[in-house]
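Annual report, structural modelling task.

Input specification for the copper (II) ion complex:
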Amino acid sequence: MSQPTSSHAYGIGMIALLVGMSVTIVFYTSFYLPESLLKPSVSEEILHPEGNLIINIAEGAVTQGNENFVPNMAAVELEVNNRVVWTNSDITGHTVTPDHRQIDSYSGEFGSHGVVLSGETYEFLFTEEQEFSYYCIPHPWMMGSISVGKARF
Ligand SMILES: [Cu+2]
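The model returned the following structure:
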């Protein structure tokens, strides 16, 4: 009496296991694999550049006419200083916002998430050549540009 019930339960268990495994395989091959293959391969030298490029958000940047992003036209060299760090030395918060949507295929969308508070930083790793300008949303006269190129040597 109990024999057929337990073998039935065993059968259902096996089917559930097989279904679970095939779902996992389908998920892995159709979602996970393509996603990981899509991620561009970036050289170690670019992932770990020799140094950072620091852009200072100068004290007093909040006032129109004062220096704000320093340097405001930054030349970034891949493998040298392609990690850029904006440091807010002002007493108010500022944003680092591209004029137009700017995407690095490795690091994703460029721009600070909201305001960079006084004393805080925003950093971004550039992995490919690109050129664009950016500004600060609350103080649109604050403008800068970034030009990322290959190392010059
Ligand atoms: Cu600002």
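The domain at 44-149 is CATH 2.60.40.420 (Immunoglobulin-like).
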